[in-house]
Write a structure and sequence with these properties.
One of its GO terms (biological process) is axon guidance. The chain is of the alpha+beta class and 82 residues long. The chain has 2 helices and 4 strands, in the order ββαββα. The protein has a 4-stranded antiparallel sheet.
């Protein structure tokens, strides 16, 4: 619920391209929301398991905050759980 999630492409040093999901923190969010966004990214970065989405990186440049995660093309989890 932080903001928009878009599909992107991460170019790796090996010249390989990796499909990724990019979650952007919405403009005008509170400091508390910014801290929560970064805390979530920090926790995600600690996991290394095939059943958990992999965090590829975090962008914090200027007012822009984004997380770059492994892309899974089957839609949102809510549609499978309900």
């Amino acid at each position: 619920e932080y903001g928009e999630v878009c599909k992107g492409c991460l170019k790796l040093p090996s010249k390989r391209e990796l499909p990724v999901a990019i979650q952007t923190l919405r403009v005008g969010c509170s400091e508390k929301q910014k801290r929560a966004f970064l805390a979530e990214a920090s926790i995600m970065g600690q996991f290394d398991h095939p059943n958990i989405i992999r965090l590829e990186g975090v962008i914090t440049r200027g007012n822009t905050m984004m997380t770059v995660m492994e892309y899974l093309g089957n839609g949102v989890l809510d549609s499978f759980v309900r």
